Amino acid sequence: SVTDRRVLDDYGEALRQSNQIDFEDMVGLAIEALQAGQVPLRHSHVLVDETQDTSERQLQLLQLLAPRGAVALTAVGDDDQTIYGFRGSRPDVLRRIGEHWGCHAYMLPTNYRCAPRVLDAARGLIERAVLRSRPLPNHHHRDLPARHHRHHRHHRHHHTPHGRSALRCSA
C-alpha cells in the first residue's frame, strides 16, 4: 500500500542519513562483495541453524558462501517452525537446500521441549501445511541418546513424526 511504501522509504532515508545499515543491507552487501570476488573463500565448512527461516536473499548468499562441491554445508531446521514468511522465508527451504546441494538428511524425531498435548495440537495444524518438506531420497531417521541432550535430566522427551532435520552436504 501507499502507507507501507512511505514507511519503508522513510526508514531507508533514516538509515542513509545516520550512515547505518540493517540486516537486509548486510546480506545484500555480502552478496555484492562475494560476486565481485572481493572476499576469498578460505573456509571448508558452513553451518546454518534455524534454516527454515532462510529468505531467498539469504539462500543466494548461502549459495555463494558454500558453492556445491567446494564447501561442506550442514543445515539444521524444522520446516514446521517457519515464522518469518513476512520477510521471505518459506517452509520448503530445507527441501530446496537438500536438492541443490545433494545432502543426506537426518530426521531428529525426539522433541525435548514440548508435552504430548502441545505436540498433538501442533500436529493437527502441521499436517495441513501444503509447503511442508517431504523426506529427501537420502533421508535417515536418527535420534540422539538422552545422555547427549543437555536438558535430558530436566525435561521429558516425546517422539513425534515431525521434527528437526539435519542436512549434511559434503564438499
What does this structure look like?
This protein has 5 helices and 5 strands; from the N terminus they run ααβαβαβαββ. Strands 1-2-5-3-4 form a 5-stranded mixed β-sheet. By secondary structure, the protein is of the alpha/beta class. 17% of the residues are buried. α2 (23-35) runs parallel beside α3. The chain has helices at 2-17, 23-35, 56-65, 93-101, 116-126, and strands spanning 45-48, 72-77, 104-111, 139-141, 158-169. The N and C termini lie far apart (44 Å).
Short key terms for the protein model shown above:
5 helices, 35% helix, single chain, five-stranded mixed sheet, alpha/beta, 171 residues
Distinct helical segment count:
5
Q: State the shape.
A: flat
The arrangement of helices and strands along the chain is HHEHEHEHEE
Average pLDDT number:
80
The total of beta strands comes to 5
Helical proportion, percent range = 25-40%
* Beta-strand content: 15-25%
- Over the alpha carbons, how many angstroms does the gyration radius reach? 19 Å
Distance between the termini: 44 Å
User: Major β-sheet, in short?
Assistant: 5 strands, mixed
Low-pLDDT segments, ≥5 res = 143-161
Within the largest sheet, what's the order of strands?
A: 1-2-5-3-4
